[in-house]
Amino acid sequence: RKTYRIAAIPGDGIGNEVMTEGLKVMRAAAARFDIDLDFVSFDWANCDYFLKTGSMMPANWKDLLTGFDSIYFGAVGWPDKVPDHISLWGSLLKFRREFDQYINLRPVRLFEGVPCPLAHKKPGDIDFIVVRENTEGEYTSLGGKMFEDTDREFVIQESIFSRIGTDRVLKFAFELAQSRARRRLTVATKSNGIAISMPYWDERAHAMGERFPEVAVDLQHIDILAARFVLQPDRFDVVVASNLFGDILSDLGPACAGTIGLAPSANLNPERLFPSLFEPVHGSAPDISGRNIANPIAMIWSGALMLNFFGETAGHQRKNFREAHDAVLLAIEQVLRNGPRTPDLGGAASTSDMGDAIARLV
Amino acid sequence: RKTYRIAAIPGDGIGNEVMTEGLKVMRAAAARFDIDLDFVSFDWANCDYFLKTGSMMPANWKDLLTGFDSIYFGAVGWPDKVPDHISLWGSLLKFRREFDQYINLRPVRLFEGVPCPLAHKKPGDIDFIVVRENTEGEYTSLGGKMFEDTDREFVIQESIFSRIGTDRVLKFAFELAQSRARRRLTVATKSNGIAISMPYWDERAHAMGERFPEVAVDLQHIDILAARFVLQPDRFDVVVASNLFGDILSDLGPACAGTIGLAPSANLNPERLFPSLFEPVHGSAPDISGRNIANPIAMIWSGALMLNFFGETAGHQRKNFREAHDAVLLAIEQVLRNGPRTPDLGGAASTSDMGDAIARLV
Ligand SMILES: CC(C)[C@H](C(=O)O)[C@@H](O)C(=O)O
Ligand SMILES: CC(C)[C@H](C(=O)O)[C@@H](O)C(=O)O
Known about the structure:
Bound molecules: 3-isopropylmalic acid
Oligomer: homodimer
CATH topology of the largest domain in chain A: Isopropylmalate Dehydrogenase
């Protein structure tokens, strides 16, 4: 029987607090569903480590993580200590890119018990998934500055859309859409304004669409698409987007479903050549860190996505892993409905109260 | 007494229908407030013109529009006839760029009588303005493709942020924020992911902020900022953003306030070296065009912004222009409250019914 080796990297701020609860629930689920998990914690990839050593991670971080099946990641960033673009490019964005985690999966759901900022929505009305390209696109450090310190100064920023990178995320999204009941895929674009990369993206989407005749595809410009998340969130099933557009939509989607405090994410290398990474969408929230009031659900839900991913091999899903995922989700649903609730959901429970309750239900 | 010369360009689809109502209301306001407007209509900058001639506008379009104080613009685009990136780059985006309309102003307001998709919001809770950079940034056709038709194919897309372009939009936004009661400015960024242009944008924003100590500035990443439009729209006063982020936020904002069908915009060359352009944010909506059911309010409100802009000279606002603007807005408010309403607002009135009602109130 395989033991899954998981690198637990809490990172900064509330990353540490929610990690404790995530581990608690993962251990409970593993025990109940006969899954062997072996967690190893690492105390780098955080801003204090940077202040001590001058870099976010040890030089041999890749070696240190080799052989792990996944990274269970808290949150990174503490702008008062280290600027975000340094802390993030030195850790999270490195993992995504160097471990070729080219799919960022972000489910969006409205739960009972979570106040929804949209009027007249009930659980079930919002239930879709954002598939975000996670390694290229608009997130690059290519480019530079010219005529520095003169009035003619300008910077160029490059975005890169490769055929491989574009096709593989589209393919993943089409396959996912095909496997779901509604078989609807929305492709985020902006080809009417961004004149090189986005027409290319559209062209690849059309080409991929021909291989999936059963999927109803719909290209939408990001401006109107963002508006429709608010106006008609029930229209969406699977949404595929570039790195930047996926980033925006996967904060906006959860906001429409109540709070980004619950949103999980899976950064996948579907071929399993490298560890995949599972993390909450929320950040490290320095302002509330250390007070045991952060909501741990995004971390716990991310763990559920990890178990589910472990269970998928060669196109087939092992039953106990799927059940473990579903049990964690059910426990989350119950706690959201009946409490205990952390202050962000209007309750007075602590991070650990909520984690304990979910672990107990699992 | 100056006569303002206005080029009326209806464009495609419902652009034509809403233009009729816009002209009607502008003429009513001009008569009442002693303003001399001279409208000249042009039947190019539309997709049929492209199909006839092979280009969106005559070669001498710039000469044809020289001497006009502004362009009153409907909407352009009809994807079944001409791909959007051709029709838009050949008209609207050309105006914005070649007439150096570097400010795109987009007010967002929740009106009484307009159903709001956000729960528990009342008129007054949403009232802010998006200042969008309108000539550079992410909207470029610079870049290209390499290794075409092989597996190694990729495209590069360049974004350009010039010091002049960045500083002038920031300055405009700071000045606007300073002139308002709340004096709050939110700067949209994504410097934690887009590693060259966005840190530069932040740096220029910080530098400009030092010249406006009375303005409370707040830099927010576009992902969380989009989420906050939904979760806490009352927090915003003036929001300044790059071309792309401004595009997204100025559809998302109006969606949060009920519908993008009402949203107006002003594409300004503040120095008045070139005509400015006033247009609804909504597009040409081929699906409902020709049926006299489109909501003309965005077009009419855009006209009000035009009158207001005409009235501002050398930092001073002429009274009758401001009053004309306010009278049009008041008429819009009344019609939204009491009807007649077009189908998008749940009524059965026609485009012209609504235009007539507003013109009568003015
Ligand atoms: C049609 C399109 C090119 C345009 C833009 O993106 O600027 C529109 O969405 C707008 O906001 O005016
Ligand atoms: C922190 C930041 C770099 C990151 C991103 O933009 O990818 C975050 O917003 C996310 O969505 O995971």
